[in-house]
């Protein structure tokens, strides 16, 4: 009996794995063609300073609409792009597109705005990121200090020695550096002190239950205090409610990003949002839920 059950379990497990790897192969096949087919686009999510309600910047977020598969989430395709190395050409496209967009917005007078661009660790380790970045800055005329590269905590910590060198090189160009999804990896405080970073972005996992879960409140408050004592700018991501906002303001968090302010928007809508934003107004665009 037990033996038969064991075999069944094994079979089901095996079939599930097969279905999953078939799906991954399908997605990967489409992903290989996506750049040439022009299936990528960027959306932009504003962030706001809590001190004065100013919009300080936006984060560029990649979207993929596949001809065969429809809309696929970055949570699904970014890991595949990283494993396959496709993130290298895709990452170059993101950098160029993001800086071209900021250039247009700057022509509309938004010269104080920064742009956050997500960078995969493979781009840090395998690509000519510093050279490419220098070229893009030259081509677009966007000042280096308006560009903030975001690297996830877990990725940096897995390769702390190597990434530190590249981050130092990027810093020399004049761009800012942010640690993304902070709190979900295992940062050694020694490295955190040593890394040439400007900003910590507290992962939305901790923000979602603020004012309901005392543990998440304690973690968030601690990260804010620690970030400030290291001289870092602290941003909370995934802020959805007024209560979360108040808590973060009380704790002295510097900036917030999340559906409370605005969901990610296409470049035209984001420009319109920023231009119509008055510090002190409530979020003008309702969250998508
Ligand atoms: P991330 O960099 O931490 O980006 C924040 C994610 O939170 C985005 O998901 C955003 O849409 C979502 N978000 C924003 N506000 C809220 C909120 O109030 N509530 C909730 N629940 N979620 C919110 P998205 O766009 O699906 O991106 C997921 C992840 O994919 C990003 O996490 C980033 O790690 C990666 N990613 C996105 N674009 C790129 C890219 O161009 N290059 C690389 N390497 N990774 C990217
Ligand atoms: Mg990010
Ligand atoms: Mg994040
Ligand atoms: Mg995240």
Describe the protein in words.
The protein is an alpha/beta fold and 289 residues long. The chain contains twelve helices and nine strands. It has helices spanning 2-34, 74-84, 87-107, 121-126, 129-140, 153-158, 160-173, 189-194, 204-207, 214-229, 242-250, 267-276; strands at 40-49, 55-66, 70-72, 114-118, 147-152, 176-182, 199-202, 233-236, 255-257. It has an eight-stranded mixed β-barrel with strand order 1-2-4-5-6-7-8-9, surrounded by five helices. A hairpin with a 5-residue loop joins strand 1 (40-49) and strand 2. Helix 3 (87-107) runs parallel beside helix 5 and helix 5 (129-140) packs parallel to helix 7 (160-173). The termini are far apart. The model is unreliable at 283-289 (pLDDT under 50).
Summarize the structure.
The chain is an alpha/beta fold and 289 residues long.
């Amino acid at each position: 009996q037990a033996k038969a059950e064991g075999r069944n379990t094994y079979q089901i497990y095996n079939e599930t794995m097969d279905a999953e790897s078939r799906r991954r192969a399908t997605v990967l096949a489409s992903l290989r063609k996506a750049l040439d087919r022009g299936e990528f686009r960027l959306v932009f999510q504003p962030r706001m300073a809590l001190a004065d309600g100013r919009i300080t910047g936006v984060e560029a977020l990649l979207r993929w609409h596949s001809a065969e598969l429809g809309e696929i989430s970055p949570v699904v395709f970014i890991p595949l792009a990283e494993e396959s190395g496709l993130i290298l050409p895709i990452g170059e496209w993101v950098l160029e597109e993001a800086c071209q967009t900021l250039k247009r917005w700057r022509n509309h007078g938004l010269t104080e705005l920064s742009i956050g661009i997500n960078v995969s660790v493979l781009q840090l380790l395998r690509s000519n990121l510093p050279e490419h970045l220098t070229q893009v800055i030259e081509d677009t005329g966007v000042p280096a200090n308006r560009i903030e590269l975001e690297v996830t905590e877990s990725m940096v910590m897995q390769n702390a020695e190597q990434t530190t060198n590249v981050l130092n090189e990027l810093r020399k160009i004049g761009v800012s550096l942010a640690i993304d999804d902070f709190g979900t990896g295992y940062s050694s405080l020694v490295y955190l002190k040593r890394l040439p970073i400007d900003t910590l972005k507290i992962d939305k996992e901790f923000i979602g239950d603020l004012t309901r879960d005392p543990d998440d409140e304690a973690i968030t408050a601690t990260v804010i205090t620690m970030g400030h004592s290291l001289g870092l700018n602290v941003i909370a991501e995934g802020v959805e409610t007024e209560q979360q906002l108040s808590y973060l303001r009380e704790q002295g968090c510097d900036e917030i990003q999340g559906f409370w302010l605005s969901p990610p928007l296409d470049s035209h809508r984001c420009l319109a949002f920023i231009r119509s934003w008055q510090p002190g107004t409530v979020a003008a665009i309702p969250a998508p839920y």
